[in-house]
Amino acid sequence: MSKPTPDVYEQGKGMDAHNQAMREIRSRKEASYDPHEPTRVWLDEDNTPGGVKQSLTIILNTGGCRWARAGGCTMCGYVAESVDGGSVSHEALMDQIDICLEHEQEHGDEPADLIKIYTSGSFLDEREVGAESRRAIAETFGDRERIVLESLPDFVSREKIGDFTQYGIDTDIAIGLETATDRVRHDCVNKYFDFADFEDACEEAAVADAEAGDDVEAGIKAYLLMKPPFLTESEAVADMISSIERCADVEGCHTVSMNPCNVQRYTMVDELYFNDGYRPPWLWSVAHVLEETADVDAIVVSDPVGHGSDRGPHNCTECDDLVQKAIKDFDLRQDPSVFEQVSCECELTWETVMERERSFNQPLTR
Ligand code: SF4
Ligand SMILES: [Zn+2]
């Protein structure tokens, strides 16, 4: 008879196992990128506490997320777009910013009021973006109205936020919290921090806000993941509603962005999906959560990526565009009555899934 070894107890439990699996999956991707070019840049519109603004969105190409290199989150394929293993120099980062400014001049009528900078990691992590680059970028965009910077909560401090607010620019830190429930964040998403760390970051932002004076704001935008792997549709919906409510109750957190999970390549979600173990959320679920949380004390938005496709949030394909449009309307107007005007036969299927799907029989439908 075989005997269990200590290895058996080490493996197959919690984060070690998830990280090991994720490292293996990610290592299948081989690609490298030019550190002098941003990963992506585009112009669009976004809802902020100051109203709907023209926005320049930048995905900076930095060394990539440290956590992703350790293994990383079960749904995230972003590391695949980062510079291999290394960090990016100040000069290269500033070249990336120049390209973004050129893009804005070419495609926009005037400088955008809102700047959003993501890094596929943490903009405030000094191993990704050093203090020199951070301050130079703050100066570059200091004359705009508002800036959003992506960061994990550990790297948020009042001083770093102050680098931006000193120019009079409203500053939001976008934190990929994913869920307010620690158990779900750890075991389904494989993200290492706790809700308490998020609360600490919100407190830093609240202090930065107070220090910045009356005319300048600093705050937190929480990003939540609708339907991480291993949750049924109804569990995901219940977890999302309570997460939005808990985030809205934290001082310093003024916006919640609910991102329906999509199936990205080289992720654990992709493996599950490929083996019939995962279905992205229904758009009806997204609409339902927005309706249920319409009265919380925060802006709640959602921007379903890849809607209507099998790998993205979807309904029956007939009604996907319609429901997506209602969600986008809700984002801008925060009025839940937009959902009264959309209906489809597939709502009955969704209701059945909500009622009958269990962990052992999911996904109940495709
Ligand atoms: S979701 Fe964020 S923290 Fe997780 S691996 Fe991706 S970039 Fe890193
Ligand atoms: Zn439908």
From TrEMBL:
Segments forming domain Elp3/MiaA/NifB-like radical SAM core: 55-292
Domain of life: Archaea
Name listed for the protein in its UniProt record: TIGR01210 family radical SAM protein
GO MF terms, alphabetically ordered: catalytic activity; iron-sulfur cluster binding
Organism name: Natronorubrum halalkaliphilum
